[in-house]
Design brief:
Strand content: 5-15%
Oligomer: single chain
Number of domains: 1
Largest sheet: 5 strands, parallel
CATH class: Alpha Beta
CATH architecture: 3-Layer(aba) Sandwich
Length: 218
Amino acid sequence: MTVVAIDGPGGSGKSTVARELARRLGVERLDTGAMYRAVALRALRTGTPVGDEKALTGVAREMVLELGDPVLLDGEDVSDAIRGDDVEAVVSTVAAHPAVREVLVSRQRDWIAAHGSCVVEGRDIGTVVAPGADLKVYLTADPSERARRRAEDERAVASRGRGGERGDPAVVRRSIGRRDALDRGRAASPLAVAPGAVVVDSTGRSVEEVVEELWGLL
């Protein structure tokens, strides 16, 4: 059994690298960020205040979520919806609630136990979810490059009719800065380099180059 934990801030390339590494390993990938986004989306749709920790914890417990391609929430494909402006605006608030994180971390650990070998990506995988992972990676990149990548992702979502007017790198960079501050400053499971993690900078590098480096560490 081989568990790879990939942490890092938004736009560092976690999802793309994790997806390709999982493909090469022939294992499943878990995007834990999608779980918090799903809670945020369901809260918005049900009128649940994102500041109400108790109510949000109920949402996290009750939602029926299938993670993969596509992401299904209560049977609906929400792959694009969880990347929308409305979710982006509140997901950090949702993710900061300790009780919500407790529910989702439990779900994540159950998923890992059920799948065995896997690649898991997020912001607290190596520090909290799977500190005993065989390989722990903290993936980062220059803020300008992270903003450019995220802007490209947002334009792709917008082109499919979701997300509104998005994709301005300057606006995205400010948004990423706010998200970084919230993720690193929250009391519960802040974004941090896990003990024993390998820090990998993806700035100016192709996905193949980064994946090859990680492959060599296994």
